[in-house]
Amino acid sequence: MSTIFGIPTPALYGQILIGLINGSFYAMLSLGLAVIFGLLRVINFAHGAQYMLGAFAAYLLLNYLGVNYWLALVLAPLIVGVIAVIIERTMLSRLYSVDHLYGLLLTFGLALIMEGAFRHWFGAAGQPYAAPSQLTGAVNLGFMFMPIYRGWVVVASLVVCIGTWLLIEKTRLGAYLRAATENATLVQAFGVNVPLLLTLTYGLGAALAAFAGVLAAPIYQVSPLMGSNLIIIVFAVVVVGGMGSILGAIVTGYVLGVLEGLTKVFYPEASSIVIFVIMAIVLLVRPAGLFGREE
Fold it and tell me: Per its UniProt entry, which superkingdom is the organism in (predicted)?
């Protein structure tokens, strides 16, 4: 069996694949956080709970309405997006004129309420959610066997991340959104409904988290704790990429996911802290993050 630095190549490639899968979720979740913070200036601590809601929406749609995985990929983000729109209109919109800390505290409280409610109804144990039959099995790549569903997760997350970046950076709607964060009064003077734009932005960020939750359900199971276990790492990814940087969130999510996977091969003891070590180093060298702009 061939080795690289004394590590069997199947084990090395397997950890790289796991790193890519984790990086896919880091990228999608940090992308949603970056969109919300970059355009609304809200530190959305409820993002992990919205990720969990997406997984539970798919689980409940399947078990109570018979909705399959493919339709759940569309319906679950829409459901969570609508819930997020209601939250933004009734609560968050009242906090834009005050310190960012109030938005963080509100969303943190909402996350605790949502997690506590689902723990009460479903318990802390994970609920199984099967992958669709079209994506079961594995493909022989020559150097490793790759589970088809894992490959689908990486491809789907890449498409969603790139599509969101193009929407924000290359379209007229994205230009309006970016302009509204710089001077909302001036943009509104041109006839643009800025409050509606902000509401839709928060809904989009939550929908991205829910989409990631549906993708994660067959891999990690559906659990009320799945969001809280991931959100701290995602915040670290956002800080490394640069708060509010769309491109930074995507690139950093995938890179840190792969580095975490490689660390599990070469130095397993450090795999749980490597992302936070990198965050500390980046903040010392470049406080705005790798892709962030200095204020």
Answer: Bacteria
